[in-house]
Amino acid sequence: TLQQHETVRAAFPALQEVPYLNVGTYGIMPAPALEVFLEALEEHERFGVASGRGKWKKVRQTREDIAQLLGCQAEQVTFTGNATDGTTLVLAGLSWEEGDEIITTDEEHESIIHPLLYLQRTKGVRMRRIPVSPDPEVMLARCEAVASPRTRLIAFSHVTCETGTRLPAKAICDWAAERGIWSHVDGAQSLSVFRMSVQEMGCDSYTSNGHKWLSGPKGTGIFYASPERMLQLSPAHVGAGSLERANVETGEAELWPTGRRFEFGTRASVLWIGLGASLEWFSSLGYENIEQYIAKLSGYFKDRILERPYMRLLTPKAFEDSSGLTTFAVKGKSIRDVGKGLREWRIPIRGIPHYDAIRISTAHFNNEADIDTLMTALDQIMEEPVED
Question: What global pTM score does this model have?
């Protein structure tokens, strides 16, 4: 468990009013990091380019901290606005021919599905969706069943946003590498929840964000590509900062061979200072401690679900097959029924229409009392008549 957990909770004053159980949608910033972020924002907006010179040093430190968290080099990290940005950098950065195929799963967020639908509509690329499973053999068999000589990319979430199933990312990426297929991983629901490394995973590219489990500012995203794959991506947009060498007289325009090729123009430096402050706060807790705590709390929550015959657990029970997301259905009640009832308790949730289910996030700042409050609310909702 996290040491002095009440001290951790004290960094999130909103918890005194709301049992916040929806970090999988939006995280909330710890007070010490928020203070740093707001101070940097005020200075930047008051003084502009006359603000302190230490700003970019802090941004560089954030990049290095993200690289350490991902297990890569700082130059391989691109700052973006969200996880969707990273996916579109890959899809828009590659050339496609009609009939090319992309494998994905049937539990992907719109951040993957919508760009793929657009690519399918505009380029004639075919999307092949497969069911999810935490079992490597099952997932590889499903990949193999839909793969063809036209398969160029497999894009999937490390942890699915719908049931919180942890996919065997390394096995899938290894399978793709053996066939020359690009592997793209969305880590929006896994980064900082449990230990991972892009090098060990073997993915060609990876995208995530800072505003969920990292409790950073909204509008912070992270993209990684291996050095070899980075050179294969042609940015759809460039600007001041994208080019390592540029010469109007000769026409020279050479992109940076690093993640800098995707960063240009006026940058949101203050957002990255804010994320850096959150990362520093997280490091003080210890990422292993965070993982162990989330594992224990999600286990407690799943046990409470399984105790109730009116609830059906959709997330794998074992933490090694899941994460901090837990999805369940309530028999006889729709998302609308449950969501309306929980709003009266000020408990924010994420509905999963695919399964007519509810998704809850158990984060580093939550505790068993938050879960108990949720279960009390659900028990009462079950006693209420269903509206026509």
Answer: 0.95
Distance CA 198, CA 77 (A): 11
Its sign, for the CA torsion 365, 367, 373, 374, is positive
pLDDT digits (tens, 9 = 90+) for 342-372: 999 999 999 999 999 999 999 999 999 999 9
Residues of the chain with pLDDT under 70: 1-4, 385-388
Q: How many CA atoms lie less than 13 Å away from 263 in the CB half-sphere? A: 20
CA distance 252 to 255: 10
Q: What three-state secondary structure class fits 312?
A: strand
Exposure on the CB side of residue 350, measured as CA atoms within 13 A: 22
- Cα 84 to its chain centre, rounded Å, is 9
How many angstroms separate the most distant Cα atoms in the chain?
A: 76
Pairing relation of β-strands 126-130 and 101-105?
A: parallel
What 8-state DSSP symbol labels residue 21? -
